[in-house]
Design goal:
single chain; mainly alpha; 0% strand; globular
Amino acid sequence: MMGDGRADLHGDEDVVPAAEEADPSRGAGAGERPLADVGRTALWIALLPTLWILFGSRLASFGTDSAHAYWNVWRVGPYTLPPGSPDAFNYTPAFAQVIYPLTLVPWPVFLTVWSVLLGSALVWLLWPLSPRWRWLVLAYVAPPALLIGNIEAFLALAAVIGMRHPAAWAFPLLTKVTPGLGPVWFAARREWRQAAAAVLGTAAVVAVSFAISPELWRQWWDFIVDAPTPPTQAGYPPLALRLGVAVVVVVWAALRGRRGAIAVAMVLAMPLWSSGILVLLTALPRLRSGDSTAGRRKD
């Protein structure tokens, strides 16, 4: 299932493609620097103005895009606000029920805890990168992810954990739904026990949640079925097409043991597209560390 990846996970080897591993002979000239070093330097220089623009435009709305909807879900009631409106809650009742205890605290406390959890997930996901890239990537990824407060980092985390513990795929299946592609991976590899664990683990959560509040599940279904396509999605390919491509990508990757492609497929399968979905790609370092030992399809 998962590769050993000890060297990668301790940062001793660079997961980033090796343009930065220069030929020693190139160091003879003072002006000759590896292309990756030049690119990294340029990105560090661009970081400050990038963050200045980001925080200048988004700091006043810190967390209100997504995190506030999670905190406020039981105050206004799930599925009472129309899709696309501020604080609209689009996820299954199971997610709302799981986070209920955290919603009882004041908003500043919730936002602090939520931000720490998101930030910790991102650090863990990106830690396999060499230090030369790790902190730069974090500096670009973490601020917008925390400002928005959406669950993409947790989806990436679930994808990584789900390769060893398939029941973790319940999280994407019970939140964004369509990026929950783990069972497809396992089925394509004929790893039926893992596929069953992912499906049955999700079904068990649904069963408990439904027993607590069947009416909420009916409301969620009506909410999802009747939801119009937001205007922000008008220029993107339809979800049905993207989901079909995502399934093909996962099957292809599963047959070749390329776990990193799961993150790309999840991006394709996200129900709504925005720049924030690229946070899912933070799963790549951890997923790719096991590519060499994932192997081909089991017969």
